[in-house]
Amino acid sequence: MKKIYASQVEVGMGLPCDVFDKKGVLLWVAGSVVKNEKQAVKLAKYGYRSDLQEWVPTGTPKKIQDEPDVEEVKVKKTYVYATVLDAFLEIRLPLIYIFDVFKADSFNKDKHDLVKQVDSVVDVILDVCEKHPEETIATIHMFHQAKYTQLSAIYNCALTTLLCGVLEVDDDDIRLYASAALTANGSILKLQDTLQRQKMGKTKTQKEQMLNHPYESLILLTRAGVREDRWLDAVFMHHEYMDGTGYPRGLSGDDICLGGRILAVADAYLKLIMPRKLLDPPTALKTIYKRYTKRLDKNIILAMVKLFGIVPPGSVVELKEGGIGIVIKNTDASNRPLITKVGDKVTNYYSEFNLTRCYDIASVVRTPENLPKKLFKLWHISEKQEAVAAD
């Protein structure tokens, strides 16, 4: 987050991006107009903007009256980030604020609109999924070093968004399902933190909390001001299964809303690779396809196979010619994806990466912990190489 200073603020200007305080609380949404000196002073005193957005105010600053009926202007937000990982790490602060409100023992609707707060996070995730789908998939597979509750929410939201794209879901519904994925576990955040530290299995009370959490999360969101049925239905049904074995109501088939079915597939996949990288991406995908078709919507599973390919982006592989590579994206030749050769072995990476082409894969390697940050720039390097080749 970057501080906003008094020299950057004048009465009458339109704010070009969302403004937060240092705790991640959303203070103003993009398009809001600074209506008086009091607001300008508050903005300069408490305001921070995301590193992902440039501060280029709209309109010509001028003195205006304090008019409570001035309408908020909807602006198209633009984001600048070196890697998808940078974008995901940046949105953790407003997400932490959302989670802190959800985890409060005595919940009172905060004066700051949580729906808009959620929108500010979802906006970034929708942006990266639209512009860099392969890199987004790869980041989900490669980076697991942040707090589980945060990454799980972000990755569920991103994977839900990407699946919606393959399924050609309407844009408005994509936003609602993405918001549902981000907030579906709002009522069990404390429990998730506990379970990550807990060495024994779940207690009886914890199991009951898990079974009840879709309903409790729905109630929590309703109290926070969410009124969109598609958002709430997706949260309520994200653990209902096609064969009727899910919870909390044991719904089956088409009785489960589309959003709930999409969230169920995203959630099931992520549980196979997080938080301890239980399976490598190709094995996790095969497991979903072979073992989960009765429980989950087969059409959505097929959409994920189409999205990922046989060896998904971000998979670490041993090459038949020797060395280690990372899958950048799939090609028409499914057994020979586009790969960047990154080193001789997983403990010895090159300092520069310029060998991106279609390689034959000898085997898939379980993703190592703490991959160097430079590996998350491979997609940017690949895009530059493609641009040069096109010229």
Q: What do you see in this structure?
A:
The protein is built from 14 helices and 10 strands. The chain has helices at 37-46, 84-90, 92-103, 114-131, 133-142, 148-166, 171-183, 189-197, 204-223, 229-236, 258-273, 281-291, 298-308, 378-390, and strands at 2-3, 19-20, 26-28, 48-49, 316-319, 324-329, 338-345, 348-349, 356-358, 361-365. Mean pLDDT is 87; it is low at 60-70. The protein has 391 residues and is of the alpha+beta class. Strands 5, 6, 7, 8, 9 and 10 form a 6-stranded antiparallel beta sheet that branches. A 4-stranded antiparallel beta sheet has the order 1-4-2-3, with helices on both faces. The chain folds into 3 domains: 2-49, no CATH class; 84-308, Hypothetical protein af1432 (Orthogonal Bundle); 316-390, no CATH class. It is globular and about 65 Å long.
